[in-house]
Every structure is written in C-alpha cells, then in structure tokens.
Amino acid sequence: MSAAERLTNELAGRTAADAALAMAELERRRALAPAPDGDGGGGGDGDVEPTGVETCAADWRFLLPDADLGHVAILGRPRPELLRSLEAVAATVAPEDEIEPGRTYDTVVAVRGGRRTVARALPLLAPAGVLRIERVKRLGRRSLMDLLRAQGFSPPELYWHRPNLARTTVLVRLRDRSGGAAVLRLARSGPKRVVEQRLLRAGAVELGAGAVSLLALAPGYSPLPAVAAPAADVPAGLLTPRFAASQAVIGVATSADGRLKAVAKVPRTPRGSRLVAREGAALDALTNDGRLDGVPAHELTTRGGRTVLLEAAATGLPLDPHRVRTDPMSALETGMDWLDAMPTVPTVPDFVADLRHDRLIGGAAGRLRSAGPTHDPVRAAAVATTLELLEPLRTAGLPDVFEHGDFSHPNLFVDGDHLSVIDWEHALQHGLPLHDAFFFCGYLSQAVDRPTDPGAAVDAYLRAAGTHGWARAWIERHAERMGVERRHLRMLELSSWFRATARVERDPRRSDSRPLHRNEAIWRVLVDEMRRAGS
C-alpha cells in the first residue's frame, strides 16, 4: 500500500477536505441563474473568472460542508471587498435596502451584531440556511450562542481572523485552542507567533489583534451526500492567501492533541481546480519511484465536482524570514542540499530542448507582452533583449530538471537538517536547471536584508547571489552537480528572474501605476548587466 493510500484510509470521511470543500455546483448554479434583468443569461461578466484576491473576503464559506452560498441577503453596510467577493461567488446578493419583503435567502450575512441582529435575520433565513455575523463583540457572546441553540441551530462556531477582518489571511476556530495554535504555527513568522499562540490558548487572542466572526447552520441544513462530513469534524482553521495568483484555500486538520494532521487544498475557482490537478500530477511523478525525500504523502481526489488535493501535514517549523536571519548559511545549506537531490535527466534530445525553450522562455515573453492595459516600451525592450541574450540556451545541451517553481517561504519546513517542501502548484517535470536555486537565494536575500523598495531588493540579491555574493559558491556547486557549464550560469540566472517576473503578471487588468515588483527589478538589472558585458 502506498503512502498516499495509507493517508487516504486514515482520513477517509474525516478529512479537512470534507469540511472545507468548495462545490462545483456553485459555478453550475451561477451559469444557469437568470440575470437580474431577467434576460436568462448568466450575467455580462460571466466569462471573466474572478481571481483569488477578488473572492478572498468570502473565504469563510470553505468552513461550511457545502460552500455554495446560494442567494445572499446582507444586513448592515458591508465592506466593499466583502460585497465584491459575495457578488463573485453567490447566485445573487441583496443588500439591506434591496431585500424583498417576505422572501427568504440561503445565506444571511450581518456586518455586526448580537441578539437583535439574529432576531432580524431569522425571518430572512431559509430552512437549512447559513447565518454569518462578520463581527461579534465579546460582551453578550454567550447569550447569543444560547439563543441560536435554542432556535435549533447546530452548535455555532466562532472564528478569529488574523490579522484583521479586512485583510484576513488566517481563520482559527476558537473552540479548538490547541488546533488553532497549530494553524498559527503554520501561518505566522517570528516571535509574534508565540505571543498569539499563548493568547489563543488562554482564550484572550482578541487582545492582540483581529476580529471574531460567527457561523451557524439553521435547522435542516444538510449538505449533499458527496460532501457530507460529521458535524464535529471541521477544520481547526483555514489559510486564505491573498496574493493575486492564489486560486486555492488551505483547510488544516489537527489531531485531538493539537498536532497537525493533514491539509486539504481546495480550489476557489475552476482555474484553481486545474492547478490543483497539475500539482497532484507533479507529486505523483516525484513519489512514484520514491526517489525524493521531503515530499508529502498525498491523494488527489474529486469531491462535489472539484479536484481536491489531500496531503499529510509537513513536519517541522516554517523556514520563515525570522528563522533564516537566525542562521542564513544553515538555511542556504539545507535548501541547496535538497535541490541537489531533485530528479534530473542529464541529456535530452535537441527537439525536446527546443520545445522546452519555446514553452518556458517564449511563454514568459508572451505573458509579459500581454500583461497590463497599456504598452510599456521599457518592458518591451527588456523582453526583446532577454530573448536575444537567452537564445544560446536553446542549443546549450542543458539537463532536464524537475522544478518546484516557488522554492521559498511559506513552502519550506525544517526539522533539524530535514527539509519538507509543499505547494507544488507551479512544478514542472521538464524545467531548466538552477531556476529553483536562484529563486531560493533571492528569497534568502530578502529575508536577511529586509529591503523596503525594489532597488534595495536588487542590492540584497546581488550581495547574496552576485559574483562575490555569500551564496554564489553554493550556486556554482549546484550547477556543477547538475552538469551545467559555468558559461551558462548568467543566462540561466536571467532566465530564472525573467520567468519569475512573468509568473506574477497573470492579471491583464493590473494597474501600470503600481510599484515595480522585486522580481522585475532584479530581471531588468540582470538584462542591463548582460547587455553591457556583451557590448
């Protein structure tokens, strides 16, 4: 029996996925629902899939066995991002002044409140509906919970939002203090994590920061059998990334003693399902022959029409910036030793290398040329120069390397000298050598120097990975072990940051007025250096 099969058997019927599952039925209902003006369509913007950032204010829906919110009514004046998120994921949304008299709704969201708010919400709530109160004050909280139980609601759950309600990246179930502490250990860096864990265990986590919300299920709530889970089996918390490319939410399951047990990667969007499926395929390729240590046991499954990735929880503590600053060279050694063990094919046919070049480098050029609403002549020139500088890589005889694609925090966990690596969403089975190494050294440089602007980020990177940088010898040793000639190092370094820049440029609706991303700042400096060196 494989490790993945053992994990699946252990968690069958009790996994975080069962409780955190998002249902494809939501997309089906949205597609079939009549438009507000009654023309029978799915809405004028139905062809534009929302990003993770656009829906993250409604990530609390993944705490429900059935994440389909259906028709939503709102009591009070919601935050703009909450309203946008609900409109992106619900069938319909009715603000308070648009609530229809006598109509009931599948979900009622109250901006804040207590017993009076519940009294207003009850007539609006359909049988088997969901009540959500965004902000619940500590005073009167017990009487509010008693009232809901008396009305036949399933045991209401209180959740703490970190760092605050408007910028939530972590939701922790307050009733499960030890499990919540384990979730914080995954999400929080540095000494403040310890403070929050102690406050949580003492029942006083609100004294630090954040807000507390409430979720309650009305009598008769019954999720579809395909996604049903025992009522008591809910995740200890959710990790809800807010970066633009994020397409998934992470449900965290813990054991009775508060130890991390498993995680479930739940897609936010249909595109997220495709990425999760690709991640599962990458993990399968890595673990089929058992060659690589530190890759989690996993199971790729389909629940409720969506692809969900179940993984055994990584062991150890995050290799976060605070830990890196404590001992940068140890962090560098641990990461580079692990990369040395990644699967590699020393030689590949010329036509395969040619296709790889077009797919990786040509693909990055295409994304950068199409990103943004206006033409950027400086970027266009940098892209053209990069393609010219990297053309020799096409026939360089480079090995075929398995890439992780995002080899940095929060995807790395250390336990002594053992490294565990998660989040293989951007993995490639046929990648270019040293991509992960350069990206990892870039992360270490940012952790050590803590730059505050793109220029400082470039300086920090050059101090680490430049010709005489403190990480350069490790990069050169890694290149030698991969069978890469030294004359190709600069081109592969440029390729790494060129592709890293393209990866953060997924949204064509981005604003050109935003600050330059550090990936692009590093890429442009490397372009200039190589161009001057060749002139």
Question: Would you give an account of this structure?
Answer:
The chain is of the alpha+beta class and 535 residues long. The protein is 41% helix and 17% strand. The protein has 19 helices and 18 strands. It has helices at residues 3-11, 16-20, 25-32, 52-55, 80-89, 115-121, 141-150, 177-187, 191-201, 270-287, 321-326, 328-340, 350-370, 377-390, 435-449, 454-465, 472-482, 489-503, 518-534, and strands spanning 71-75, 92-94, 105-110, 125-133, 157-162, 170-173, 211-217, 237-239, 248-254, 260-267, 298-303, 306-312, 317-318, 344-345, 400-403, 412-415, 418-421, 428-431. A 12-stranded mixed β-sheet has the order 2-1-3-4-7-5-6-8-9-10-12-11, with helices on both faces. A 3-stranded antiparallel β-sheet has the order 13-16-17. A hairpin with an 8-residue loop joins strand 8 and strand 9. Helix 8 (177-187) packs antiparallel against helix 9 (191-201), helix 14 packs across helix 19 (518-534) and helix 18 (489-503) packs antiparallel against helix 19. The longest helix has 21 residues, at 350-370. The protein is elongated, with a radius of gyration of 25 Å. The chain starts with a helix and ends with a helix.
